[in-house]
Amino acid sequence: MPCAEIAVNPDAFQMSSFETLPLTFDASDIVLPGESIATAIAQLVQVDTGVDYAAGRVGAVAVAGTELTQTVTALLPRKRYRLVIQFQVAVGKVWAPYLMIECPQ
Questions:
Q1: Are 99 and 83 in contact (CB under 8 A)?
Q2: Cys-Cys crosslink for 27: which of 14, 62, 66, 72, Cβ 3.0 to 4.6 Å?
Q3: Strand runs (DSSP E) across the chain, as ranges?
Q4: Domain count of the fold of the chain
Q5: Could you tell me how far CA 80 lies from the centroid of its own chain?
Q6: What is the CATH number of the domain that holds 82?
Q7: 37-88: per-residue pLDDT in tens?
């Protein structure tokens, strides 16, 4: 099943390696009337290796209406990450918004 990948605003976010933050995507602009988000999955990809950095995700994606929240922690200093939250709103309609995370320290 194909999915559509879209960037979010802001397109990049700075986060310290010492922080643990819930990052929320508001999908209200792309979820049409009559559609709903049942489940969602997240990947936190370390950009330089292309590997999912599972150690940086705390728990599963929380879904509250059209808001999708993934808690991120323990990033490696001087690395970049792409947080992708993939969700389905209807048969054959899958979205995958992403946020670039910069970890300078």
A1: yes
A2: 66
A3: 3-14, 20-26, 40-46, 51-52, 57-64, 67-73, 79-90, 93-103
A4: 1
A5: 14
A6: 2.60.40.1220
A7: 988 999 999 999 999 999 999 999 999 999 999 999 999 999 999 999 999 9
